[in-house]
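Blinded run. Sample ID left blank on purpose so nobody reads anything into the name before looking at the predicted structure. Input follows.
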Amino acid sequence: MMLSGYILRITLLVIFILFGSNAVAQIENPQGDKVATTPTDILPKTMSGSHFNEFWNFQFYLDNGMKAHIVFSMANFGRLKSPVTGVRISIYGLDGQKVYQLSREYPFENLQLNRDTFEFNLNPRQQNVWFRGSLDDKIEMYINTAKDGERFVVELTIDQIQQGFKWGDGIFRIGEEEIGIITHIPHARVTGKLGINENVKNVTGSVYMDHTFQNQNTTSLMHSGYRFVHHKDAKNWDVLYFLQPKGQMGRQTLGYRLVSQHGNITLQGITGIINVTDGRAFRDNLPQSLTLFTTSENTLTLIRTQDLERYSVLEQLSWAARRVARTFLGGDVIDFRGLAKLTDSEGREIKGAYNFFLVN
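Blinded prediction complete.
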């Protein structure tokens, strides 16, 4: 059994080398090992130039079975549209399997950014969309806004935040373009309130958060991206995040995996993938099983086991905003979320949540 597993890994590695070698010069990963983040790393890295976009992606896994994904963003579409900030919210499991989704944009000039308190206030006139606080202490998040008669209520406190990391300087390169990835919160505790209208729950659980930024429209260069989050406790977790550029035939990727085993934290770069099988998710055809190649020369297998929700960014926008976003992004960005299983090179199965997004 061990010999057959070894032969399989060698075979997959040969396929990766043969079919992926033409893209090596186009993708450059950071140098070095993991580097601990500081509280100031959460501040915006862009905010200037004719094009930029930046995302702070929070994923909440709650003890009562609910899940919430909240993404704060800022973007400059160049001459197509004035710069904006935004928030996207998705809540699953509040009452059965229904998914509540919302997307909001605000004029960029309204952003109230306090670099001392790390406050991101997107709508200061109403004080209803913000998060603030230091990664070495706690972060508070407040959202109270409505869509189609559904009022989204988010009052959350994030504390017991484990040390965040980036790979080297956190900068990846695709040709001449750069993209930054930082894992600010691999694991933390969350408490507070979450719900819709009068159906607001007191919640506890865990949270993961990463930060992606670029000064040019590298989104249009992307085919897809993948996150996997496994939380057992503060000292035992497994998180990965990688992006697949267009035109790489599913071979070369940029991103990494962070693993904490009893507090011992390691980083593995995710340098390439092979799409082993496809499967349907809602009305789309997505990778069902992926083999991942890492800088530690091991392979991982990632398998979708249950699909819970589909979120189209463009479907949440007006027709005019949809047209601008499609031109800027290179297509619709569709998020798929659910459950998955990660198998490491030693055969250990790790259950967690997945977030696959596709630029279509």
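Unblinding after everyone has recorded impressions. The radius of gyration is 20 Å.
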